[in-house]
Description:
Oligomer: single chain
Strand content: 35-45%
Number of strands: 9
Largest sheet: 7 strands, mixed
Order of helices and strands: HEEEEEEEEE
Amino acid sequence: MKKLILLIILLFVLSVGYAQDIEYADVVGQKTVTWDKVAKIEPTDIVTYQIFTASDMFGIILVGETDLLEYTLTFIEEGEYTIGVNAKRELMSGDIVYSVVNWSNEDVPVGATPIPFVIRYIKGIQSPGNLRLQ
């Protein structure tokens, strides 16, 4: 009986650790994500951020690059998307260094994505028109 209770507790703890939030894109298929600024190592560094989507349908796609701390994604195809962001450091020498990608569905390292999430896009349906009394 003790083993069964321990197994149930272990399964509960593991399932809570992998819990994630599902966010829905708006009617036009857009959702904005934000992140924290990455500190420059040298004052002359140029730091930008690359934004990725990952889905079963399309795999991993680089969708944009920005120097801002937010990005608005636009989805065309219905589905569930994981979002990734990494930092890109460009040195004066022309060398480029990339950080690892911080994925929205996992909190690794701890604190990277405090509330893991995926974005689900479902196309809206038109409302009936010409409503009138009979």
